[in-house]
């Protein structure tokens, strides 16, 4: 039995354009979850002082970050050949890693056990280092 949900995602990422848009959608989804979990952690955790101004500033920072990532899409077309895609994809991948780390931090603030996620963060970091090494060789 085929799972249509995963087949849809596979079909989306078959082209470079689809992969970039998929990564951007993933970033937006992760940012929303990050904001919600950060707000919940600030409300629930007595060690964190909940201030709406800090939450609003965080939300504005996230919106600004996503807008900047969106601006990079047309800018990447100006770079020669596949360089634009590699540039865009490496920035998006880095953003995904940092957002994932923020999600783990929020989970830790909610008193969750984060040891399960440490190997995943290490794999992401190695992937970013490998990507940086590849860009230096070009």
From TrEMBL:
Predominant location category: membrane
Membrane topology: Multi-pass membrane protein
Highest taxon of the lineage: Bacteria
Transmembrane segments: 20-43, 63-80, 86-104
Keywords carried by this UniProt record: Membrane, Transmembrane, Transmembrane helix
Record's keyword annotation contains Transmembrane helix: yes
Pfam families in alphabetical order: Phage_holin_4_1
Compartments reported by the entry: Membrane
GO CC, alphabetical: membrane
UniProt-listed NCBIfam families: holin_tox_secr
Protein family membership: Belongs to the bacteriophage holin family. Cp-1 holin subfamily.
UniProt name for this protein: Holin 1
Organism for this UniProt entry: Streptococcus pneumoniae
